[in-house]
Every structure is written in structure tokens, then in C-alpha cells.
Amino acid sequence: MPKPLRMSRRMWGAAWAVLCVAGIAATAALNASPAPDPQPEKPVSAECAEDIANIETQLAKAKREGNGDGVLAFSRTRVGADDCSDEILEHFSGDR
User: Fold this and answer.
1) What is the pTM assigned to this prediction?
2) Confidence of residue 79 (pLDDT cuts 50, 70, 90)
3) CA distance 33 to 29
4) Residue 22, CA atoms < 13 Å, CB-side half-sphere
5) Distance between CA 85 and CA 93 in Å, rounded?
6) Which of 36, 38, 50, 55 is nearest to 82 (CA)?
7) How far apart are CA 55 and CA 50, in angstroms?
8) In the Cβ-directed half-sphere of 66, how many Cα atoms lie within 13 Å?
9) Cα 3-9-11 angle, rounded to 5 deg
10) What is the reported pLDDT for 76?
11) pLDDT, tens digit, for every residue of 20-55?
12) How many CB atoms lie within 10 A of CB 84?
């Protein structure tokens, strides 16, 4: 069985220093790069906008009544209605 190559402490130190310098340089390059353009908001259907407004109204009412824990439960679904779950999640994701 061949002997493993042994690296001296000086070589380990040099390798560590090179990795640190490379990490610092990469961080500086990323910090200097411009921020990406913000994504434009997708248009929301009128039905989904109405649902979002209804949810905001219910949240405000719950907060006024002292039940402002931010939890709402919905149990009704309309037949033939738009699926607004993605729009609702996207709208309220900034509140976290």
C-alpha cells in the first residue's frame, strides 16, 4: 500500500491563505455587481383581487377585535372560480 503524501504545516497554511484570499475576492466581486432588476408584478384577475381585498378586510377586522394573531381559515370554494392560491400567497408573502 503506498504511503499517503504528507503536507507540511507551511503548505497547509499557504493553502488556507489562498482559499481565504479567493473567498474575499469573490465576496468583493459579488458585492460590487449591480442588483438584478426587480420583477414586474403579474396582473391579477378581478376575481382574485376581490378575494385578496376580502382577506385584507377580514384581517383588519380581526385585528380591531383583538384577534390579531394573523390566522384566518377558509372553508368555502366557488364552483368555476379562478384558482387564486398563487396570487394570494404572492400577495401576503411580504408580510412575514
Assistant:
1) 0.47
2) low
3) 6
4) 6
5) 12
6) 50
7) 9
8) 0
9) 80
10) 62
11) 999 999 999 999 988 777 777 778 888 888 888 988
12) 19
Name the one residue in this structure whose C-alpha cell is 507551511: 10
Q: How far apart are CA 37 and CA 19, in angstroms?
A: 31
Q: Which residue would you say has higher pLDDT here, 42 or 77?
A: 42
In the numeric block, the cell 366557488 is attached to 78
Contact status, residue 81 vs residue 46, Cβ threshold 8 Å: no
- DSSP letters along 10-55, please? HHHHHHHHHHHHHHHHHHHHHHHSPPPPPPPPPP--HHHHHHHHHH
**pLDDT value of residue 23:** 97
